[in-house]
Amino acid sequence: MQTKGTVMRFLRKKRVFVLLFVSLLILLFYNTAWLGKWVYPIRHDQDIALSARSYGVDPFMVAAIIRVETNFNPDKVSRKGAVGLMQLMPDTAEWVVQKAGYAEETSQLLHRADVNIEVGAWYLKSLYNQFDNNPIAVLAAYNAGPGNARKWLDNGTWDGTLKGLGNIPFGETRHYVQRVLYYYDKYAKLYEDRFST
């Protein structure tokens, strides 16, 4: 049989636990920006800002692509051979190096966050140029390749809109575009002042 002292200690511990739990809930509700930034962090933000500014692309789009591609893990290599934060295919990186006039060793440094973001931002800008600044088409092209995206647009399979996304033949690409846009919205709201000029 429990003594009165044991019961009182148990109730005090329970009361402390409830008080801590309620305090945590209040903190979370009153500081949703802090919680949002904890759940949706942006890493390598200086490299993102610098490269995005250099090529005139939206830094939140770069951050969202990185989040979807690697969750900010610079060491990730895909099964298909895509490398680094922005998951650049070696052939694509070689093409960018030639077109952008980067040093030849640049493609050998794609595991470095700053280099990968720089090459990725340049490539993203080239996709914006190829797809008339249509961000939905750019994201589809980033995932499926510009040849596939162009074919879908040219033959009428897809109209290049978010509303028509269901017409993209690749389920992975449909899902990819949706995920990047989701993170883009989160980042743009949570970090609206992060990349201001």
Automatic annotation (TrEMBL):
InterPro entries for the chain: Lysozyme-like_dom_sf (IPR023346), Transglycosylase_SLT_dom_1 (IPR008258)
Classification via SUPFAM superfamilies: Lysozyme-like
One Pfam family per UniProt: SLT
All copies of domain Transglycosylase SLT, residue ranges: 52-156
Coiled-coil regions listed: none
Source organism per UniProt: Paenibacillus hodogayensis
Matching PANTHER family: MEMBRANE-BOUND LYTIC MUREIN TRANSGLYCOSYLASE C, SOLUBLE LYTIC MUREIN TRANSGLYCOSYLASE-RELATED
CDD domains per record: LT_Slt70-like
Protein's name in the database: Lytic transglycosylase domain-containing protein
